Amino acid sequence: VQLQAFGGGLVQAGGSLKLSCAASGGTFSSYGVGWFRQAPGKEREFVAAINRWSNSGTYYVDSVKGRFTISRDSAKNTVYLQMNSLKPEDTAVYYCAAGARIITSSLTSADRYDVWGRGTQVTVSS
Q1: How far is CA 105 from CA 7, 46, 102, 110, in A?
Q2: How far apart are CA 85 and CA 75, in angstroms?
Q3: Which of 1, 16, 63, 125 is the most buried (most CB within 10 A)?
Q4: Tens digit of pLDDT for each residue in 32-70?
């Protein structure tokens, strides 16, 4: 499977963006999918993930809980990250990743994912 992430942009604090991670070349619903982000000078950080074959097994880093929602549209082979109430500290390059055999306990670990998409820049101005 190949991934393409898009939907980033510049938004004011308090605004919203919806990122998309579109897959081609495989049955995307069979993959666990995660969103990660990396801000300048910082390490890559787990943001959110959704379990294989699921639209209800979702996980978030504490800093985005209640603001971000990850979801899956299997018919479109796409996973979304709806980001609301954005803050300047959410500014980063956002990456989506997919794991064919990733288990629930590994969804937050970047090194357990098989495939990565190119990042999309999210910039939140204060």
Answers
A1: 28, 13, 8, 12
A2: 28
A3: 1
A4: 999 999 999 999 999 999 999 877 799 999 999 999 999
